[in-house]
Amino acid sequence: MNQNFRMTSLLTYTLKNLPNTSKWALRFCMRPLSSSSQLQAAAASQTKSKKTLAKPNIRNIVVVDGVRTPFLLSGTSYKDLMPHDLARAALSGLLHQTSVPKDVVDYIIFGTVIQEVKTSNVAREAALGAGFSDKTPAHTVTMACISSNQAMTTAVGLIASGQCDVVVAGGVELMSDIPIRHSRKMRKMMLDLNKAKTLAQRLSIISKFRLNFLSPELPAVSEFSTSETMGHSADRLAAAFAISREEQDEYALRSHSLAKKAQDEGLLSDVVPFKVPGRDTVTQDNGIRPSSLDQMAKLKPAFIKPYGTVTAANSSFLTDGASAVLIMAEEKALAMGYKPKAYLRDFMYVSQDPKDQLLLGPTYATPKVLEKAGLTMNDIDVFEFHEAFSGQILANLKAMDSDWFAQNYMGRKAKGHAMIVEAYPK
């Protein structure tokens, strides 16, 4: 989906041991694939001192656990469901995974991009369907592609302020069944008919009907303020940073290949099976499809034709799925016997020019959230960026490693870190 708010950076401190093969690694994911690539720094052999990110007089906030349904290509096994069906499954899976008592949860928040009109507050409907008390508040947020991030950071705010101790945050999307409206003229006529009190009034309104009233209105796939699709913007961004079609295809192939490897090795442990009514149980993502560079090269440009470089193969697919995460105040989690998986330390939202910088959010947000936390790039072991196009990720890498871009576009003296990025390490 298109957005002005392209990026939120959420800084976490994980408790798991990280590989010692590099000073730090950057993990970049195509949004639905949960796959990564490591980018090694020149200072790989240096010893790094650990820093505490705990803030005085502010509660520590932790991730206890998270789950998701399998993510599927839209128009496949989930196509006859409604969004709250998937969100309910994510909530039920989280309850099963964590054994958290329902009455302990103070609040539930879900993010979604395109709202189903029958369940506009999908968080509330999913919570009731999953068996939560009708006394448990729930609300839904939307902020384009980062709606579920907004749900998480809203949860952080509720806990940090002392309003809540335990919050479930999540996200859901069902691109298989997006709302399609009647045309504005048809809607107006139907509303006028509903208000008409006499037969004569009804006949007068009906007489104004024309066949073109039946033309439906589809949800916009372009940015409202610019009338440009995100794919078109990604193509222009790749061209501006000289990212070739070959580079994008190589990165996408690597992403799919790593995702497939992780899937085959059972590493996608957050996935919970989902029984589709009247169908088989879905147990894994169906959009992970490693191909070959030769096959990918045969695809035509998807947005800027005939010379564009963004194709269906190096872009993410439209996805159906849902996820949920259990977030707690640290003292509450420890008192209940949970071992936190991560500490949520800080976050940053940025908003850029929707025409030329729509997809450069990571470049702007990353240094800001690090500076806010008193850190540098060299203090971080793992970065994970979720974006829709491989060209976009590669362009952001170039921008983040450019003194010229920092000085001319970000108002910074330099890029703020010294690193040499190897995009495709052996």
Automatic annotation (TrEMBL):
EC code: 2.3.1.155
InterPro entries, per database record: Thiolase, Thiolase-like, Thiolase_acyl_enz_int_AS, Thiolase_C, Thiolase_N
Chain's role: Mitochondrial trifunctional enzyme catalyzes the last three of the four reactions of the mitochondrial beta-oxidation pathway. The mitochondrial beta-oxidation pathway is the major energy-producing process in tissues and is performed through four consecutive reactions breaking down fatty acids into acetyl-CoA. Among the enzymes involved in this pathway, the trifunctional enzyme exhibits specificity for long-chain fatty acids.
Pathway annotation: Lipid metabolism; fatty acid beta-oxidation
GO cellular component: mitochondrion
Reactions catalysed: hexanoyl-CoA + acetyl-CoA = 3-oxooctanoyl-CoA + CoA; an acyl-CoA + acetyl-CoA = a 3-oxoacyl-CoA + CoA; dodecanoyl-CoA + acetyl-CoA = 3-oxotetradecanoyl-CoA + CoA; butanoyl-CoA + acetyl-CoA = 3-oxohexanoyl-CoA + CoA
GO biological process, one term: fatty acid beta-oxidation
Annotated gene: HADHB
GO molecular function: acetyl-CoA C-acyltransferase activity; acetyl-CoA C-myristoyltransferase activity
Residue ranges annotated for the Thiolase C-terminal domain, each copy included: 338-411
Family under the similarity heading: Belongs to the thiolase-like superfamily. Thiolase family.
Keyword terms of this UniProt record: Acyltransferase, Cytoplasm, Fatty acid metabolism, Lipid metabolism, Transferase, Transit peptide
Taxonomy, superkingdom: Eukaryota
Protein's name according to its UniProt entry: Trifunctional enzyme subunit beta, mitochondrial
Thiolase N-terminal domain sequence ranges: 61-331
Subunit structure as annotated in this protein's UniProt entry: Heterotetramer of 2 alpha/HADHA and 2 beta/HADHB subunits; forms the mitochondrial trifunctional enzyme. Also purified as higher order heterooligomers including a 4 alpha/HADHA and 4 beta/HADHB heterooligomer which physiological significance remains unclear. The mitochondrial trifunctional enzyme interacts with MTLN. Interacts with RSAD2/viperin.
PANTHER family with a match to the protein in the record: ACETYL-COA C-ACYLTRANSFERASE (PTHR18919), TRIFUNCTIONAL ENZYME SUBUNIT BETA, MITOCHONDRIAL (PTHR18919:SF153)
Gene3D superfamilies according to UniProt: 3.40.47.10
